[in-house]
Specification:
With 562 residues, the chain is mostly helical. It has one domain. Helices cover 60% and strands 3% of the residues. Strands 1-4 form a two-stranded antiparallel sheet. Strands 2-3 form a two-stranded antiparallel sheet. Strand 2 and strand 3 form a beta hairpin. Helix 4 runs antiparallel to helix 14, helix 8 runs antiparallel to helix 19 and helix 10 runs antiparallel to helix 12. It is globular. The two termini are 44 Å apart.
Length: 562
């Protein structure tokens, strides 16, 4: 595997002028095109990394949709998510921010999704009632909920499209401070703890074993490389070293624990019907068709309600801030200049467009930058845009293979529960990491932090137990307030934002100085004028002839500052 050699490949000349020696240790830079056979192999690594992160989402989503465990449509939803991930990733890497990032499903949208589905009109009937329904009624039971989610996701994402393509992202980040981001992102993980405990408790031994392997592979064995054969032109076969545990800790953990559950199932240790058995949902795989092309409106025309749209805005805002924080990091890792304003604007706008497409396709989720794939770039030293484009093509093809998506439904619940414990904990920690910018010795900051994290949990859990408490006499207003006040990340983010912007505090105390440097949003387009890294692949000569394009925030010819 040539990509793991210690040699460096020449990257864009603009990157070598950076004082921080951006991409000095890179094997393939952002504008490099590795041979097609190497590109496909390296693209497979990104694909496998993505699968490990995306496969857990339907395990929370489908039960909330009132879908039975053995419903083959669960495989269709996974295939749809993979298909949309590939489609949006290609658009983002080619015409969006043009960074080598993967855009896919995100946990951030699950919190408002569960708040919407907790409304009285969307709560699931008992299992006995569902079991007594005929097949058509069962299908309509979950599809009507999917249509509600699809409409809410697609319409709320138009806000992200708007702030991205109009260049309002920078203005928005002036009020979205670190003390806004911390509760917004960390509450994504904290709010979902009940789902992790419910799934893991189906067999604590398997769940703890999953956590142990995840910890072992991702933390203790990251420096352990596995010997592999590689071929280099003119040198023949050689032995190379591949960071297997550092690159694929989630996938390795799932495969090992899945295999262990299969052995315990075959030997009869797990009795019939035990949730840790690997054949509990075997019917899903048997009934799934081999090929199926996902298409917009495949579950019916999306419906739109005010409560759903406003609730989903919380997920959109969380994803926006999270993606912006990745752009400077990815750019430096792959040897590119700092992303100019037009690339950031276009990236956020394109992510919003991708979430609109995800809603229309019926994935039940939005799109966001995958942090796991960002880490893969740092490990492999491969930051080529062409590799991500190949990975997107693989995702699109796999999304058409319906059997493949159905296979992941067979992962035993306790294994998924163990993954949840790690994944939700990491999301909470990622949100808390923004505290590095603020002064934690300040009583002001501690007050805002504590209140904006604790109060949303109290309020949202209470409203979940008392869904009929809000009675204004208007059903639409009741539903809207129930969703807004029941979405912890929205309550926490708004509370943190209001308190941080109203309570007096210095810029250094609030972390605004360090935060503005991290976001790299003050980059003048003149600094990167010699580089065409973020230019469109076609049509640039035409754009440069039109002077008005210099005032369009998402075009590469944009020259204005914030």
């Amino acid at each position: 595997m040539e990509m793991m050699d210690n040699h460096s490949v020449n990257v864009d000349s603009g990157a070598t002028k950076e004082p921080l020696k951006r991409g000095v240790d890179i094997n393939y830079g952002i504008d490099d095109s590795p041979p097609w056979y190497l590109s496909i192999f390296m693209a497979l690594q990104h694909y496998l990394t993505m699968i490990g992160a995306i496969v857990s989402i339907p395990f929370i989503l489908t039960p909330a949709l009132c879908m039975e465990d053995e419903d083959p449509s669960r495989g269709i939803i996974i295939s749809t998510m993979i298909f949309v991930t590939g489609l949006v990733t290609y658009i983002q890497a080619t015409w969006g921010c043009r960074l080598p990032i993967v855009q896919g499903g995100t946990i951030s949208f699950l919190v408002p999704t569960l708040a919407i589905l907790n409304l009285p009109q969307w709560k699931c009937p008992s299992k006995d009632v569902i079991a007594a329904l005929d097949p058509e009624a069962k299908t309509e039971l979950w599809q009507i909920r999917m249509r509600e989610l699809s409409g809410a996701i697609a319409v709320s994402a138009l806000f992200q499209v708007f702030i991205g393509y109009t260049g309002l992202v920078g203005k928005l980040l002036k009020i979205i401070t670190p003390l806004t981001i911390v509760p917004t992102v960390s509450l994504v993980g904290l709010t979902l703890f009940s789902h992790a405990s419910e799934t893991a408790s189906k067999h604590w031994g398997i769940a703890v074993g999953t956590i142990f392997l995840m910890t072992l592979f991702s933390q203790a064995m990251t420096g352990v490389n596995v010997p592999t054969l590689k071929y280099r032109k003119g040198h023949g076969l050689q032995i190379g070293w591949f960071p297997l545990f550092k690159l694929f800790p989630v996938l390795l953990t799932i495969m090992i624990m899945w295999s262990l559950c299969a052995i315990l199932t075959a030997t009869g240790v797990f009795p019939e019907g035990h949730p840790a058995r690997t054949d509990v949902r075997i019917r899903v795989l048997q009934d799934a068709s081999w090929f199926r092309v996902p298409y917009p409106g495949q579950f019916g025309i999306p419906t739109v309600t005010l409560a759903g749209v406003l609730g989903m805005l919380a997920g959109v805002l969380a994803c926006t801030v999270e993606s912006i924080s990745y752009y400077p990091t990815v750019s430096q890792m792959c040897g590119a200049p700092p992303p100019p304003l037009h690339a950031i604007n276009r990236g956020i706008g394109t992510e919003g467009l991708g979430t609109v497409l995800a809603g229309l396709w019926g994935s039940g989720n939005g799109t966001n930058t995958f942090g796991e794939n960002v880490g893969a770039i740092g490990v492999t030293k491969v930051g080529s845009r062409r590799v991500i484009q190949w990975a997107a093509l693989i995702m699109i093809l796999q999304g058409v293979l319906n059997k493949f998506g159905a296979a992941f439904i067979l992962i035993p619940d306790p294994v998924v529960g163990g993954i949840f414990c790690v994944m939700f904990g990491m999301i909470a920690a990622f949100g808390l990491s923004a505290l590095q910018y603020v002064d934690l010795r300040s009583a002001r900051n501690l007050y805002i932090l504590g209140l904006s994290i604790f109060f949303p949990l109290v309020l949202c859990l209470w409203l979940k137990d008392h869904p009929d408490f809000i009675q204004t006499g208007n059903e639409t207003l009741d539903s809207t307030l129930s969703v807004l006040l029941g979405t912890s990340i929205l309550v926490g983010g708004c509370l943190g934002c209001v308190l941080d912007n109203l309570i007096p505090g210095t810029a250094e105390e609030r972390g605004l100085v360090a935060w503005s440097k991290e976001m790299a949003l003050e980059v003048d387009s003149d600094e990167t004028i010699e580089s065409n890294t973020f230019d469109f692949p076609y049509g640039m000569s035409l754009l440069r002839r039109w002077r008005w394009t210099r005032h369009v925030p998402f075009l590469p010819t944009y020259k204005m500052k914030l």
